[in-house]
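Progress against Task 2.4 (sequence-to-structure conversion) is shown through the following example record, which the project officer requested during the mid-term review.
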Amino acid sequence: MSFDIKNKTALVTGANRGIGRAIVEEALSRGAKKVYAAVRTLESADSLVREFGDRVVPVQFDLQDQSTIETAAKTASDVDLVVNNAGVLKTSGPISDDSIDSLQFEIDVNVYGLMRTAKAFAPVLAANGGGGLVQLNSIVSVKTFANVATYSASKAASYSITQALRDTLAEQGTQVISVHPGPIATDMADHAGFTDGAAPPSTVARDIFDALLEGRFHAWPDPMAQQIGEAYQSFAKSVVDADMQEESPA
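Structure tokens generated for the chain above:
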């Protein structure tokens, strides 16, 4: 599959800053006719509207609130591409006092939020010809870092769900992309202490739309991600990307 954003409509979660804002800007620079900026508070998208006018349409969207997601799916009934960029991170190790609470919160947003979004928007994408679904998953979905162990676990789970969505939504012609950034210069990376060698958010945005055009499932946008992706490539090609007959695991 291949998807070109030109003259298409996108929805980007967490669009008001960081990687999300860069994705909005990249989509518009590549000719998107409209982008829904899906944010928890509509006012946070005001600067995007000032810059891009009516090509940006703010919609309320909370990954923990099914009703906001369902309402957004009705509002954005013309959407061709959904980019689920929003997520949360707690700096919790595996035996930290707050590790279980942190994991429950991260699973609710990073995994259940993805599932809520996919469930609401899959029929919309199907009705509009298939389109695309992009999930931001991080390098920690394949390599755990101890100080963000619970976040790593949530992203590993979201990566697993993304693989299932790729196979499920292929039947309706929806292209699914799994994006695995390394350190990116955002508030989240700064909070986690991953600032050394951090790439700009625009690096991620560009690779997302390149992956859509090229029909890639994985996107490894920055230098650290590319290093891990290269090491992971053999497994991905032989197992994750392979057209394997579905069987129940032993």
